[in-house]
């Protein structure tokens, strides 16, 4: 109903008590912004473009507000042409064709950006990854056991990284490989990586360790089930005088400062809440609830931690969520 009223009448109640009204209504009754009444004029050029999957059903009144266009999957030939046209592409044509073939064979489809990311990922490790393994993080998860000790990255060399290693962290071939996979994903252009594994599979320790190994600060953000999209970015609080103010979260601080953030427990929050930061992960920008637009600093990176999807009722890895992260499956270390 909220969105329907905005589309039909250009009216919307804001969280701060303000009201958006149509330009006709605003010009008729006020003629100028009134800060006391907090009435704001909607721009005449305001338009809405909405995206939805074919399986989703829309409320009839809401559906009547849109003109629909059915977008089909890209033809493999178009994907191949787009991937091959990248100016810095170094992969052989046969490898590019294999990547495109793998993408086209996925029943639920895969985004064009994911195919580009997989190609860059393979370019970073041409001698250690196959096209199938390069596509795994973008269509499902790459299993650490499949690539233990095989990746090469530009992380600090062994002697230097040992100086930055926590004394309480014991490095193994498996943990080293996970850190290399994360570093390789970041170097291939991804801003966000997700570590998925059961409880006790060293996810938190690894996330903290690779941040320290990379010489950067990491903000820890523990998520909870009732969290909203607004709670991810800002929370409401009071100052010393009792006035209500916005407080930044670890995520918004990391965006602003260009540092790392560890999102602990992304399986706990709803898909709608998690996908509200999809634009941040893909393009590095986000609009805050207070109206501020943030652009992520060059050093911004996100490591998300989660438990594996369980039953059909707990399948939190929707196609929209899958496209946000570079997925890595970790298991408990053998005793």
UniProtKB/TrEMBL annotation:
Lineage, top ranks: Eukaryota, Sar, Stramenopiles, Ochrophyta, Bacillariophyta
GO molecular function: ATP binding; ATP hydrolysis activity
GO CC annotations on file: cytoplasm
InterPro entries, per database record: ATPase_dyneun-rel_AAA, P-loop_NTPase, VWA8
SUPFAM superfamilies reported in the protein's UniProt record: P-loop containing nucleoside triphosphate hydrolases
ATPase dynein-related AAA domain: residues covered: 193-321
UniProt protein name: ATPase dynein-related AAA domain-containing protein
């Amino acid at each position: 109903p909220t969105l329907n009223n905005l589309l039909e009448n250009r009216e919307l109640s804001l969280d701060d008590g303000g009201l958006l009204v149509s330009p006709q209504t605003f010009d008729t009754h006020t003629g100028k912004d009134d800060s006391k009444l907090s009435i704001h004029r909607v721009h005449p050029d305001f338009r809405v473009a909405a995206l939805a999957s074919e399986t989703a059903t829309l409320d009839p009144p809401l559906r009547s507000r849109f003109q629909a266009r059915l977008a089909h999957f890209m033809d493999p030939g178009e994907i191949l042409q787009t991937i091959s046209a990248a100016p810095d592409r170094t992969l052989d044509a046969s490898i590019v064709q294999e990547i495109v073939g793998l993408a086209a064979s996925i029943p639920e489809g895969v985004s064009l950006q994911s195919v580009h990311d997989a190609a860059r990922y393979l370019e970073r490790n041409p001698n250690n990854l196959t096209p199938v393994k390069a596509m795994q993080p973008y269509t499902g998860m790459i299993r650490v056991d499949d690539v233990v000790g095989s990746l090469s990255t530009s992380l600090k060399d062994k002697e230097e990284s040992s100086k930055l290693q926590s004394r309480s962290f014991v490095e193994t071939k498996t943990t080293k490989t996970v850190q290399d996979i994360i570093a390789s994903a970041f170097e291939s252009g991804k801003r966000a990586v997700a570590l998925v594994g059961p409880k006790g599979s060293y996810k938190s320790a690894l996330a903290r360790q690779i941040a320290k190994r990379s010489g950067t600060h990491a903000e820890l953000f523990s998520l909870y089930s009732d969290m909203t999209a607004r709670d991810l970015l800002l929370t409401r609080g009071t100052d010393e005088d009792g006035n209500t103010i916005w407080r930044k979260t670890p995520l918004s601080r990391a965006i602003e400062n260009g540092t790392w953030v560890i999102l602990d427990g992304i399986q706990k929050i709803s898909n709608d809440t998690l996908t509200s930061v999809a634009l941040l992960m893909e393009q590095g920008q986000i609009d805050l609830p207070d109206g501020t637009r943030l652009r992520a600093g060059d050093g911004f990176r996100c490591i998300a931690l989660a438990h594996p999807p369980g039953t059909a009722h707990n399948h939190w890895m929707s196609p929209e969520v899958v496209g946000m992260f570079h997925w890595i499956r970790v298991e408990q270390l053998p005793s």
